Amino acid sequence: MLSKVDVGPHATSFDAIGVPWRIGVHDESTPTALLGNPLDGHDREAVLRRIEQFDRDWSRFRSDSLVSRIAREAGSWLLPADAAPMLALYERLHALTDARLSPLVGASLERLGYDAAYRLTPAGDALPAPRWADTIALRDTGEGLVLDTVAPVLLDVGAAGKGYLVDLVGDLLASRGVTETLVDASGDVRVRGERSIRVALENPLDPSKAVGVAELRGAALCASALSRRSWGAGLHHIIDAVTGRPVAKDVIATWAIADSALIADGVATALFLVDPARLSAHFSCEWVRLSSDGRLEASPGFVGELFA
Amino acid sequence: MFTSSARTKAARIAAPIGAAAALLSTLTGCSTAATEADAPATAPVNASYSDGTFEAAGAYQSPNGSENITVIVTLKDDIVTDVEIVTNPANPTTANYQGQFSDGIGALVVGEDIDSLDVTVVAGSSLTSQGFREALSVIKADALES
């Protein structure tokens, strides 16, 4: 479901997959404070179609999506061409977090009340996610990647899907000859080309404050916080798949920087579930995390400033 | 969350020394035992201080018995560059209160106004979708009525 709203002379703005997006086309002379110029009408339409396609495939919030069909019956499902990189990342993060990060948490989230109707009231005890190896298998075929399921299963790609979509939108624009872009999908940002940008790391407890600024060039930065998608005491969207419960609020916000927004988004989520050193050992990434006691930490290679 | 020994570190705070002295006196304000401090806690606000790391331990009587906290302050050029609060609660109830106290300090020191920064974009968590926000406001309204 897309609604189109342009604000101001700079950059392209619209709402999609439930959040505001902004896309700018820039060069090295674009001022720091600006995203760049808007897309032309054809590019913009192509971007909206690409996002709509992703939503139709992967959203668990619409009944006509592929994910909703997979949730209704077991079987073998031919996945779209964009599935392989995303599910490969999920497999890596699933292993690195000892199964605490999983794409199979859809039913766990629904149990907690975060469902397509936004019921937002728990419907019983926490529901652990089904075990990956018992439930799904991925198979490469001549037609593409196929997902085999032994039972209906509700996938949730919330941990990395939006970041991945930022990559896909930038890829699409690059294929149309628009190579110097900044794509900002509300917390997931990727900049391409020679330009450096500065990204404020928003304090999750006070959106008027930043706890730091990251310098970003030819890379992606993704943010995650427990405070925004929270609907009750201890209820929020970062789920431990092993228990089916929201993670404890020891870490309240994370930011990750990587070459792709897919990896940055996945790592930002995984930072709630596992020691950062374990992620750094397996991914080329930098990170910042804010703990509930006000402690702010960053990886040694983080480029930017911290204010705390 | 805070067990037998908890540490709260609020790194790299830029604050005038006067504010730090006030902070220290607040932290140790309820102590009944003497503070054992290297820092000149009662020095005039406009004085110049030695660079270095200073530690002050405070003890106080809570309903649960004697409790301790330790505050470690790092000074450079009369600016507090680091404050660390170490709580050593002997009792779970105290641990809870000290935890809240430490949280308050942490919340106090984190952040600069985004409006004052020359940045391109702001990265918080995802702005919540319209549906989510509407549902949440309904729940809040329900909660008010009941």
Describe the protein.
The complex is a heterodimer of chains A (308) and B (146). In chain A, the strands form five sheets. An eight-stranded antiparallel beta sheet of chain A has the order 1-2-6-7-10-15-16-17. In chain A, helix 1 packs antiparallel against helix 6. Chain A is 27% helix and 29% strand. Chain A has a domain at 74-149. In chain A, strand 4 and strand 5 form a beta hairpin. The model of chain A is unreliable at 1-9 (pLDDT under 50). Chain A has 308 residues and is an alpha+beta fold. Chain B is α+β, with helices and mostly antiparallel strands and 146 residues long. Chain B has one domain (6-113). Chain B is 31% helix and 34% strand. Chain B has helices at residues 17-27, 92-109, 130-145, and strands spanning 6-16, 36-37, 52-62, 65-76, 79-87, 112-113, 121-123. A five-stranded antiparallel beta sheet of chain B has the order 1-5-4-3-2. In chain B, a hairpin with a 2-residue loop joins strand 3 (52-62) and strand 4 (65-76). Chain B is flat and about 55 Å long. Residues 1-47, 100-109 and 126-134 of chain B have low confidence and may be disordered. The chains are: A alpha+beta (308), B alpha+beta (146). Chains A and B meet through strand 2, strand 8, strand 9 and strand 10 of A and strand 1, helix 2, strand 6, strand 7 and helix 3 of B.
